Amino acid sequence: MDIKTLTAGLSVSAQIVPADILAIKAAGFRAIICNRPDGEGADQATFEEIATEAKKAGLEVAYLPIVSGKVTDNDAADFDKMLNELPGPALAYCRTGTRSTTLWCLAQAGQRSLADILAATKAAGYDMGGVVRRIVNGGKTPTDTGDASYDIVIIGAGAAGIAAAASLKSRQPDLEIAIIDPADVHYYQPGWTMVGGGIFNAQQTSRTMGSLIPRGVQWVKAAVAAFEPENNAVILEGCRVVKYKRLIVCPGIKLDWNKIEGLVHTLGQNGVTSNYRYDLAPYTWELVEAMKQGRAIFTQPPMPIKCAGAPQKAMYLSGDAWHRRGVLKNIDIQFNNAGGVLFGVKDYVPALMEYVKKYDASLNFFHNLVAVDGPAKKAWFDVTKPDTPVERIEMEFDMMHVCPPQTAPDFIRVSALADAAGWVDVDQATLRHKTYDNIWSLGDVMNAPNAKTMAAARIQAPVVAENIIADMQGESPVAQYNGYGSCPLTVERGKIVLAEFGYGGVMLPSFPKAIIDGTKPSRAAWFLKEKILPPLYWKGMLKGREWLAKPKEITAK
Prior knowledge:
The protein is α/β, with parallel strands linked by helices. Helices cover 27% and strands 23% of the residues. The strands form eight sheets. Strands 6, 7, 10, 11, 12, 13 and 24 form a seven-stranded mixed beta sheet that branches. The protein has a five-stranded mixed beta sheet with strand order 1-2-5-3-4, with helices on both faces. A five-stranded parallel beta sheet has the order 15-22-16-17-18, with helices on one face.
């Protein structure tokens, strides 16, 4: 007997026998639901046999037989009613547990999110891809057959999605492309560090989405609920279906604010801020300007996160502002990093350490933020040093800049496209999916071991475009991605350490050392960040102009 838990109130299993009843009772169950018709298998105990033993043990029983592959809408409603009327927890069984799990999924539609339902079933070992459309449709069998169809469908209209669409259109203008994204506004997120440092206005970092969708590309303003890769279909919320010949997946990353207890309730007040949100970056600068003394904590969660340098960029620009105002000596700067190093590529660390010393910042490694009490100005960190028991410590603060934990979006993590960690599973060179050869991914959501930055997406988009065009022509991939990423570390107002690197931490500078030496702070790199990169983004990358982003050809082995 192999019992799989779906919720605290319901577990499922394969066929049970009367001899299992005492063990089921001992496990704490108070009711049993049979979803397998009698006589389906020669070795199958009848419901009456199970019910007799269950009643002797004081368990309630219910019979809702389902023919394999034929779960009706009424069946799901009856199952939901049973769950509400029977004492819990309950154990439902059939031949393998799949029918019982399917009934639960359809009964929960409308009560739980699709992502929560699929996460529970996936954890229990059941693939519910076949009923996704019904779950999205509130548990009812969909009747809509008006599917839209495109040559290429792109999930996500962020930097990666729009750049990929523009790169494809520049190569083959007659392609029928659709971008699926529910957002009205598009953000230049690398600019938020500068907003938090008082250099940019927040408004400089946003545009309306409609103004950026490439000409000739259809914008489907909707949220994705699930994928059916075996049917070349994307299921939208509301159960609309969009079909594709080739799919590009780039919806970005999920900022998991709720993972830190108390954080959501205090963001934007009580001295708690984050440059990872458009509406909060101005508050960062407001706090920095107002602060004259006290403790400022800057946090960094476990990897992976987008722009791994952003948490310390906030620290440096804040420290520089306090230094310029002459109040730095009265401010205790604490950098609490869940990881064990300041920056993942060692070549840039010496220059950064000079600024850590300049701002007299304390580096606290293996410190992961787990809870915040904004009104009390207190935060709690789990300290997980190697070979040492986890210790929870309390720190008071006057200002705290938080970088939230980050994961793949829910609808990606529970899909067939994801690897075990929840990221889209691609070949790190071609960015093609490892299982589905008409799917590609780029940007923050895929699992290649590169830095999750806008600069990475800028290089990836032409690679994906080249390889898709080659695939349409019946050819093998022609372009490869070398893991390039860039992190302009704003160590002070007017100077930047321009970190550029690829897979394995190999340095990949874009400029000769005489122009910009990335291992040292430079004004030229600041000029690049402040004056050159924003127009390069809006007028170049998002328009299919691949300045400094020509794809590298695959070299013969």
